[in-house]
Design brief:
The complex is a heterodimer of chains A (396) and B (150).
Chain A (H helix, E strand, L loop, with lengths): L4 E11 L6 H16 L8 E5 L12 H9 L6 E4 L5 H14 L5 E8 L19 H9 L3 H16 L3 H15 L13 H6 L2 E3 L2 E2 L8 E9 L13 E9 L13 E3 L8 H14 L8 E4 L4 H10 L8 H6 L10 E2 L4 H5 L6 H14 L12 E8 L3 E8 L1
Parallel strand pairs in A: 2-3, 2-4, 10-11, 10-12
Antiparallel strand pairs in A: 1-7, 4-7, 5-6, 8-13, 12-13
Helix pairs in contact in A: 1-2, 6-9
Chain B lengths: L6 E2 L5 E4 L2 E9 L5 E2 L16 E5 L3 E10 L15 E9 L2 E7 L12 E12 L3 E10 L11
Parallel strand pairs in B: 1-10, 8-10
Antiparallel strand pairs in B: 2-3, 3-4, 3-5, 6-7, 6-9, 7-8, 9-10
The chains are: A alpha/beta (396), B mainly beta (150).
The complex binds zinc ion.
């Protein structure tokens, strides 16, 4: 195993892009990543793409193949990986393995998504019977995704006394961070009153506490040490890179199941905490060493709960950390300095790569308008359907 | 009425017994893990036997958490006279937690830890199937033990 470096990153701004096909979003993100790395398409020796179920990939999730056939047919291996909202992390893990093994010197990971309007339709071929969890949650009780997150948030209020105001403040922090980030979709600052006045979606979560969906694309290029100098920027190492799946007995209310069997000794959201633990171990660092954390804030609740689950501080302390400003860009742990999913909207398969791009730019001092002072170590954490988790640690 | 076999939103989740409605789950004869709904195997990595057997779940539980579904879900969810409703997460023992609509209780009466019992109620009336029911939980004693509340 040899060291792997993050050579460059790109991200198409998040938003709604009705005039750009998915493959074009991917291509633009790749172009930016190549320029950031000081490389050309002809330098890329392999491509791992996050497979989308919504658009492109010739209907078979062949998004890497589609991209190279569009912009650079050069015989390179194309690897297409599934993982729903965590697919970008799995693509990155794939690229990491190809470089760390010594098989290839420069490998890119890309994820691009145009999200459907309204409710996400059920995939074709799903069984309309009790063997299909997604079918069951709809027909038995009409449980939307926000209902699952709201059940977690309500229980947190019971366990830790989290107030509605604190839950609202988490949303305001994301908007404040996003206000300086040109790539974010929602950049107007909001107040706690704005959040609490927005429509209640699933108590205690209001509209402004739940991430919307967006179109977006991101690419990250990994490579060996020999290619670091090409960019003319500080070298940033991929010190930890891990993916994982869920554990039996996980107490998280896992979408789209309607029931679970919980074991006391199993971590909540184990697919992500497992990946985070392995990333810490690989990098030889702990929570105290992390300057910024880019994590999947599907809701305001996630912002309070996840750092606790990862061991950054004890359960329940997230409220105090937030209220004391310790999670702000200039705080002890900068939490989603990009503005997070709440300010970008979720472009499912692209999201994990956007997180890694953000950390790379932060560590190089390129995060114009939302720079974490003197950031040296950054971490990402993401969750996807099927109990997929991923986490990356970059260091400079 | 009363002795007809009720129509449920999906087969194999719940059935009427002389003692009232019961959720149908799975107990693994190998490691004794109880699951809901029915499973084709056992997901316990420490269990080598993996012997799933049909099993009834306890009909009584306690409220672990809850929310209110404020907007109308997509059309796969069928309900007559839609309005916001409570979804609870109910602990039934042996680690099993089940999500379900709650009934017979107002929002301001909800208390985490409160006792609940399984009931069934009609969700909608279908032109061919007639009245179609789902399982719900209600405060203990709110409805008759048979659970066939209106
Ligand atoms: Zn078993």
């Amino acid at each position: 195993m040899r060291p792997v470096y993050a050579l460059g990153a790109g991200a198409h701004p998040w938003g709604k892009w009705p005039d750009k096909p998915q493959v074009q979003l991917a291509s633009e993100a790749m172009d930016e990543a190549l320029a950031d790395a000081g490389l050309r398409w002809s330098d890329v020796q392999g491509l791992a793409a996050a497979s989308s179920r919504f658009e492109g990939g010739m209907g078979w999730g062949l998004h890497a193949n589609e991209l190279v056939q569009t912009v650079a047919e050069q015989g390179i291996p194309c690897i297409n990986v599934g993982g729903a909202c965590a697919a970008g992390a799995i693509a990155l893990q794939t690229a990491y393995a190809l470089v760390s093994s010594g098989q290839y010197d420069v490998v890119a990971a890309v994820g691009a998504e145009r999200m459907p309007k309204g409710f996400i339709p059920r995939p074709p071929g799903s069984a309309d019977d009790r063997t299909d969890d997604d079918y069951l949650r709809w027909v038995t009780m009409g449980a939307t995704n926000p209902a699952y997150w709201a059940i977690e948030a309500r229980r947190r209020q019971h366990d830790h006394g989290t107030s509605d105001q604190t839950l609202a403040r988490a949303s305001t922090l994301m908007r404040r961070n996003a206000s300086g980030n040109r790539r974010a979709r929602y950049r107007d600052p909001i107040s706690e009153d704005d959040v609490l006045a927005s429509p209640m979606v699933a108590d205690p979560l209001h509209l402004l506490q739940i991430c919307p969906v967006s179109d977006g694309a991101s690419a990250v290029i990994l490579g060996s040490e020999d290619f670091v100098a090409r960019s003319g920027k500080p070298g940033v190492r991929v010190a930890g890179c891990a993916i994982g799946s869920g554990q039996f007995g996980d107490p998280a209310r896992r979408i789209p199941t309607i029931a679970s069997t919980v074991r006391d000794d199993v971590s909540h959201t184990s697919e992500v905490t497992g990946a985070v633990s392995r990333a810490f171990e690989m990098a030889g660092v702990g929570p105290e060493d992390i300057d910024l954390l880019e994590m999947a804030d599907n809701t305001a609740w996630h912002l309070l709960a996840w750092p606790e689950l990862f061991g950054f501080y004890e359960p329940g302390k997230g409220d105090w950390m937030l209220e004391q400003g310790k999670l702000s860009i200039d705080g002890d742990l900068a939490l989603n300095p990009s503005g997070g999913f709440l300010s970008f909207g979720e472009a499912t398969t692209a999201q994990a790569l956007l997180q890694v791009s953000e950390v790379l730019w932060q560590l190089r001092g390129q995060a114009e308008g939302h720079q974490v002072p003197d950031a040296k170590v950054g971490m990402t954490a993401v969750l996807g359907l099927g109990a997929n988790g991923g986490s990356v640690i970059l260091t400079r | 009425m009363g002795h007809e076999v009720p129509e449920f939103v999906v087969d194999g989740l719940v059935e009427q017994t002389p003692e009232g409605p019961r959720l149908i789950g799975t107990r693994c004869a190998g490691c004794n893990t109880l699951y809901f709904p029915q499973k084709s195997s056992c997901a316990n990595p420490g269990c080598d036997e993996k012997s799933p057997q049909p099993a009834h779940l306890p009909a009584a539980g306690t409220l672990y958490s809850y929310t209110i579904q404020r907007y109308q879900p997509p059309s796969l969810f069928r309900i007559d006279d839609w309005q916001p409703y409570i979804i609870g997460l109910v602990e039934l023992g042996e680690g099993v937690r089940v999500m379900a609509m709650l009934t017979g209780i107002e929002e301001d009466q909800l208390r985490i830890g409160m006792d609940l019992q399984l009931v069934t109620q009609p969700l909608y009336t279908d032109s061919e199937k007639g009245e179609v029911r789902t399982f719900k939980f209600a405060p203990t004693g709110k409805f008759a033990p048979a659970g066939e509340s209106a």
